[in-house]
Design a protein that fits this description.
The chain is α/β, with parallel strands linked by helices and 134 residues long. The protein is built from 5 helices and 5 strands; from the N terminus they run βαβαβαβαβα. The longest helix has 15 residues. The structure holds manganese (II) ion.
Length: 134
């Protein structure tokens, strides 16, 4: 990350604390600033307040699930452009389709190795972040 300017912020929206800790630890080790939310409603609030560079969005969560939270983010002008990576529980095509319909930009099938999550974050940010000003 050293040559890429300001550190990117990743918001992890996930109700499973173990997963949050694992992904946070790995992403921070690789230079990212990490924010956490433990349900969809808290995730929407944090995204609006903090404008992360990317969101990792679990699907099955209490209060507001990841599909509904993504729809809200994608329909809000302040948050619509933030890429959302769905964390889907099954490799089922139906889940991927639902995630895509909700506005998710990509998805990872859980259980996902931390390095797989990191690779997807890097890939998505390379696609969507504007290059640093010269
Ligand atoms: Mn969950």
């Amino acid at each position: 990350m050293t040559s890429e300017g300001p550190r990117a912020t990743v918001l992890i929206v996930e109700d499973n604390e173990d997963n949050r800790i694992i992904y946070r630890t790995f992403l921070e080790h690789h230079g990212y600033v990490v924010l956490e939310a433990c349900d969809g409603e808290a995730g929407v609030r944090s995204a609006r307040e903090n404008r992360p560079d990317i969101v990792l969005m679990d699907i099955a969560m209490p209060v507001l699930n990841g599909l509904e939270a993504t729809k809200i983010l994608k329909s809000g002008p302040a948050t619509a452009s933030i890429p959302v990576v769905a964390l889907t529980a099954h490799a089922m095509v139906a889940d991927r389709n639902l995630a895509a319909e909700a506005g998710c930009d990509s998805y990872i099938t859980k259980p996902a190795e931390p390095r797989q999550v990191l690779a997807e974050v890097q890939r998505m940010l390379a696609q969507t972040r504007s290059p640093p000003a010269v």
